[in-house]
Amino acid sequence: MELQIDVPVDVVESEYTSVLEKLQKMVKIDGFRKGKAPMGLVETRYIQQADKEVAENLVQRSFMDAVSEKQYTPIAQPHYSFERIKRGEAFTFKAVFETPPTVVLGKYREIAADERTVAIKDSDVDDEITALREREAKITKRESGAVKNGDYVKIKVKRLNDPSQDKGTPPAYKDYTIIVGKSKDASSLDKYIVGMTAGEERDIDVKYPKDYYIKDLAGERVTYSVRVEEISDFELPDLNDEFSQKHQFTSVAEMKTKMKENIEKYVTEKNRSDAKASILQAIIENSTFDIPESMVQTEMVLLFRKMQERIGYQIDSIDKFAQIFGIDKDEFLQKLRDEATQSIKTSLVLHEIAKEESLQVAPERTEEVITAIAQRNNKTVEEINQMMEQSNGRPRIENELLMDQSMDFIYDQAKVKKLKSIPYEEFMRGAS
């Protein structure tokens, strides 16, 4: 938006008087004690400085008065322009600024969505416990002997008939570590290396089923060159109450019960979250947006900073970032822009729904979150509240809670179809 703002001459004069009186007290002119120089002399010598300060003061104050009167909400620093400012004349300037984005909501009730369900079996719990035991297994390298089920084996693998491989570039080995016999995948390589010895190399043909979960391999016959590098015994710790207590359970029985509950909770929350995302995306696609470029740019900067925090590598320049990580700068920028735009649209839609439905965050819910933060960080609630006040953290918490509330609302209003249960192993393949 662009506003032309006219400041009356009496307001201009009042500001000049105030600025010049302040200057008179601050400056020292030869022949006069500090603060005692005549006003006329101060004005003659410092009029340009006074012009600048008066203009800055009038622009900022008059702009805020104008947008308040018009009930506009600037979302970025405005750009000001004026021809001149002079004592004894009215002052006119222009302000160009961006207002908050607008969204026209599409349909957001009774959105159709599918939600997966997963059948959790006792054997799935046993597999999770086995994985926990494997992390504490005793690994002892063997100097001789052949590979057998249960061994911990390091292998090198390369595909010999990869159609995507550049014909001028020979295939390269990749390193893998496997526990032989563990995989339930009938196409897994581990069953083919049983009986091999360290240093032995073998070509292996694998025919993948047409419905194989890795699409590039589905229905393909693939030849691999496999070399066994190292064979180790793999001794799991005993599954007993002592092991359970080490992992904060009182017994093996409690460990299995609690772990099954945790798995069921994770699966339910993940499937519900995916369904919510599907519903939200449908609402976004049915809505229209008017998003200022400055907002997209600001969000892109925030996303870039978060990415640097995640990888623990601080690089201010996107050019340098792309160069170091070997990525295309233009593709990276487009990805950032797409993510930023999606993030803004998500926020706009959820806030608009909250407004339409008069959703509000209960104060006690905010206090629950703050209490949980205090407990996680071994601090008192008072300490966390003080930190929140300094960092303006409470509004952010309330905003996140309101977004969650909107998500719950659209989910509760949606037509959600629960799909036929799939095995936990298949679910985990899709989640990874």
Short structural summary:
This protein is α+β, with helices and mostly antiparallel strands and 432 residues long.
Would you give an account of this structure?
This protein is α+β, with helices and mostly antiparallel strands. It folds into three domains: about 100 residues, Alpha-Beta Plaits, CATH 3.30.70.1050; about 100 residues, Chitinase A, domain 3, CATH 3.10.50; about 180 residues, Trigger factor, C-terminal domain (Trigger factor, domain 2, Orthogonal Bundle). About 50% of the residues lie in helices and about 15% in strands. It is built from twelve helices and 14 strands. The strands form five sheets. Strands 7, 8, 9, 10 and 11 form a five-stranded antiparallel β-sheet that branches. The radius of gyration is 34 Å and the shape is elongated. It starts with a strand and ends with a helix.
